[in-house]
Amino acid sequence: QFSGTSSEGLFHKAIIESPNSRNFPELKTAAYGLPSAEAIGASVFAKLGVETLEAARAMDAQDLTNRAGFAPQGTIDGKMLPLQIVDAFDAGRFSKVPVLAGFNSGEVRAQRAFVPRPPESPEAYEAAITARYGDRAEAFLDIYPADDVQGSILATLRDAIYGWAAERIVRKEAAAGQPAFMYVFDYCYPAAEAEDLCAFHASEVPFVFGNLAPESLPPNWPVPDGEEDRGISDALLDYWTSFAATGRPESAYGPVWSPYGQDQSYLDIGQTLASRTDPIPGMFELHEQLVAQRKTAGESWFLNIGLGARPLDDAAEEQAE
């Protein structure tokens, strides 16, 4: 609702953890590689074997999800969500409030269904990226190099889904004159490291709420149970609550958290807390360009990235036709 109109005036600050600015279905027309929301609804009704909304609502919830699956997402309906998120921010149609936003360094480690199979060699990876990105391949490989293929694949998806979106929101709010604070959660504790889940999606949540006890966590969640974990949690709890109260994140347990501003300041939440600048050099600019190209070609800008991307030249040629 941050970029919608129905929430105007309902909140005075915003904390946005691991945001996603992908394209969503539009109500009546197919757009950006997605069918219309009405077509999606008709497909769901076909799976359910019903013809009316009343009949669907009367179904047992478990039976309904067993048949139709569960894939909730927004609809660009011109009312609740008047525009695609990127278009709303570009048009200045978003809540102008102080914002705290960021992402986790290992976001997709717990979302392996999104992750494509790695090529057989670094050379094959480099060739695949070059074939997809043409004259942008060099810039892409500078950020996501072939010397760590698996790490680059994970980082590509992390940034395309979460990192670019977080930095875009912070930049837009800062440009609108609002206090804007960015973080990167890069903290890893032994139980997460043992499962190759360092800084996975949502792993910051127990820390910012101070709920590290096993009984507070979902099943199979790696439990942070050390003194260092509690120290990080104490600091984040301070930062988050002080921001909610005053619009400025402060903690006696960590450094001064500077606004994003001209030098692209952010809080690095690693094994120690540190104030740094420019979280991933070149990342925002690259994804901003790639999303603009996908939009111009009428394509999705969600998972259409890295090894899962269609070649940019093919997309441009089809749009021209």
Automatic annotation (TrEMBL):
Taxonomy of the source species: Bacteria, Pseudomonadati, Pseudomonadota, Alphaproteobacteria, Hyphomonadales
Source species, domain of life: Bacteria
Domain Carboxylesterase type B: 6-273
Full protein name: Carboxylesterase
Organism (species): Hyphomonas adhaerens
InterPro entries: AB_hydrolase_fold, CarbesteraseB, Type-B_Carboxylest/Lipase
